[in-house]
């Protein structure tokens, strides 16, 4: 069905007079129609620009204009969002609502088309064109926490190689006998390559649409016999919280894959204690995204449970095809001793070389390395471990404090749901860490109990002077804690 409907869609795009190299935007959930767009748009030679609906409306306008999108496909949920910004869109000529006739809304935008009508008018007898492998296939913008979002363009070549990279055994354990639920959105970095890898390897795909809460996901997983699901730590946390409070479970679930932010050991234990394997990857919009992956090998089998969990909190080994290294402030390459930290650089066939609109190669140094802005150590066995974002590192009395390590330590406290640490300017020490805690549902931990808990785990000078409790940490458009918001709120 996906093949035939993608072909019908490709024909419909031609009927709408879209050509090779035209950008076609989507603002959509993970659905079968979105999958058809992935194949139909890129397959006919146009470029699919997957837009994150959680962007601020001014950023939405910016990215749609910047990418010069000619057509826009939106799910019903996002019609009001588009109505509000429609007048500001400069290049979009067609709006298609991803539904059938029976569900077409009374849309304020004249000439809005209905997805099912559009493809029903075509027969699907379509000869897929061939073109050079470096032809652009998709565009994704970084979430743009500071300044305007930057566009990353993926080619057919990079997407196929990345899908191979993700699909080989030992990376993410999924096979043709699996039912995979991508909670990771198709509007963010091609859902980590799932739509391509799934078709390549023949997994069953289960698309969650807009219902991403613990109750909805659990029900869907059980109805569809889901064996693997991929998502960011905040999604896993809400799922585990739901399982704990309701007593529900998903007996078919075998593997959970995470990425996008550092998982805490408490999170990893939450799944492992239920017999669910935990896989953890690192990457960014600029790296397609998967560049490293952490999973246990045969050699780790004899380690005790706590050591295995500690291994899994590391971001892992590079995928075949990717190179990585850490460098110091003056650019010298640092040793892989598990202690020395520096900025992580990566290089490879699915690493971005320039942002959309910039000169070719301008995102790389002279030797083709991409500076990630992440700070990491590399252990002697080749596993990489992120210690911070460059901009989040805290320097106190000349010593570095890793905000991720401190957050991890705090999140192990049984009454803590999530924790964030930021540096606050300090007269004597330069900076001191401030710990911001979101308590577990129904719990009210005290500052003393949290600090006492940390004392056993971190060096004395790492202990925060202050602890703030909040109902909810601010989350950005990709589900990560927005430290910029916390800095604005607390730095004074
Ligand atoms: P953004 O546009 O917010 O940068 P990305 O999804 O591209 O969105 O984010 C990439 C960044 O997310 C990485 O540079 C890193 O800081 C963080 N990140 C991604 N995966 C992990 C991980 N497994 N552990 C820790 N941090 C991660």
Please provide a brief summary of the model:
This protein is α/β, with parallel strands linked by helices and 492 residues long. 28% of the residues lie in helices and 24% in strands.
Strand content: 15-25%
**Spans of at least 5 consecutive residues with low confidence:** none
- Coarse shape: globular
How many E strands? 23
Spatial strand order of the main sheet: 5-4-3-1-2-6-7
Estimate percent helicity. Answer: 25-40%
| Major sheet size, sense and barrel closure | 7 strands, mixed
Q: Give average pLDDT, whole number.
A: 94
Helix count, DSSP H or I runs of 4 or more residues = 14
Distance between the termini: 57 Å
The whole-angstrom Rg is: 23 Å
Question: Topology, pairings included?
Answer:
Blueprint: H1 2-15, E1 23-27, H2 32-43, E2 47-50, H3 57-66, E3 69-74, H4 79-85, E4 94-97, E5 113-114, H5 115-120, E6 136-141, E7 151-155, H6 156-167, E8 179-182, H7 194-201, E9 204-205, H8 214-224, E10 228-231, H9 233-246, E11 255-258, H10 265-272, E12 277-283, E13 290-294, H11 305-313, E14 317-318, E15 323-327, E16 342-347, E17 370-378, E18 384-389, E19 394-396, E20 399-401, H12 403-411, E21 416-426, E22 430-439, H13 447-455, E23 466-469, H14 483-490
The structure holds adenosine-5'-diphosphate.
The site of adenosine-5'-diphosphate has 19 residues, from strand 12, strand 17 and strand 18.
């Amino acid at each position: 069905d996906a093949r035939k409907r993608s072909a019908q869609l490709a024909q419909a795009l031609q009927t709408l007079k879209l050509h090779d190299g035209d950008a076609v935007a989507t603002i959509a959930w993970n659905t079968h129609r979105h999958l058809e767009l992935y194949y139909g748009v890129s397959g006919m030679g146009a470029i699919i620009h997957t837009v994150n609906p959680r962007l601020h409306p001014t950023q939405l306008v910016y990215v749609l204009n910047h990418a010069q999108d000619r057509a826009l496909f939106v799910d019903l949920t996002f019609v009001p969002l588009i109505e509000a910004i429609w007048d500001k869109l400069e290049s979009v000529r067609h709006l298609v609502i991803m539904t059938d006739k029976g569900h077409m809304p009374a849309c304020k935008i004249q000439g809005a088309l209905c997805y099912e009508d559009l493809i029903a008018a075509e027969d699907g007898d379509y000869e897929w064109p061939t073109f050079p492998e470096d032809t652009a296939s998709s565009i994704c913008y970084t979430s743009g926490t500071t300044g305007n979002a930057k566009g990353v363009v993926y080619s057919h070549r990079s997407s196929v190689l990345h899908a191979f990279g993700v699909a080989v055994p030992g990376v993410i354990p999924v096979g043709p006998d699996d039912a995979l639920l991508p909670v990771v959105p198709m509007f963010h970095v091609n859902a980590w390559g799932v739509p391509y890898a799934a078709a390549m390897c023949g997994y069953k795909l289960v698309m969650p649409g807009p219902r991403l809460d613990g109750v909805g996901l659990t029900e869907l997983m059980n109805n569809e016999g889901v064996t693997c699901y991929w998502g960011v730590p905040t999604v896993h946390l809400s799922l585990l919280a739901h399982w704990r409070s309701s007593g529900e479970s998903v007996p078919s679930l075998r593997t959970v894959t995470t990425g996008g932010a550092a998982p805490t050991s408490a999170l990893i234990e939450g799944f492992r204690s239920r017999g669910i394997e935990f896989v953890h990857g690192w990457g960014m919009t600029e790296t397609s995204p998967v560049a490293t992956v952490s999973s246990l090998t045969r050699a780790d089998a004899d380690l005790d449970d706590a050591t295995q969990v500690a291994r899994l909190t590391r971001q892992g080994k590079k995928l075949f095809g990717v190179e990585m290294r850490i460098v110091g402030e003056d650019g010298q390459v640092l040793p892989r001793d598990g202690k020395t930290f520096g900025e992580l650089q990566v290089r490879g066939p699915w690493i971005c070389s320039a942002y959309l609109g910039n000169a070719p190669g301008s995102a790389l140094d002279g030797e083709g390395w991409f500076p990630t802005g992440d700070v990491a150590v590399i252990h002697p066995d080749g596993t990489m471990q992120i210690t911070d974002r460059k901009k989040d590192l805290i320097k106190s009395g000349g010593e570095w404090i890793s905000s991720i390590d401190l957050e991890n330590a705090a999140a192990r406290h049984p009454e803590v749901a999530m924790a964030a640490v930021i540096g606050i300017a300090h007269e004597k020490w330069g900076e001191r860490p401030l710990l911001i805690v979101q308590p577990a549902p129904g719990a009210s931990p005290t500052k003393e109990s949290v600090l006492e808990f940390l004392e056993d785990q971190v060096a004395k000078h790492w202990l925060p002077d202050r602890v703030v409790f909040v109902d909810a940490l601010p989350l950005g458009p990709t589900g990560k804690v927005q430290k910029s918001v916390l800095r604005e709120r607390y730095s004074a």
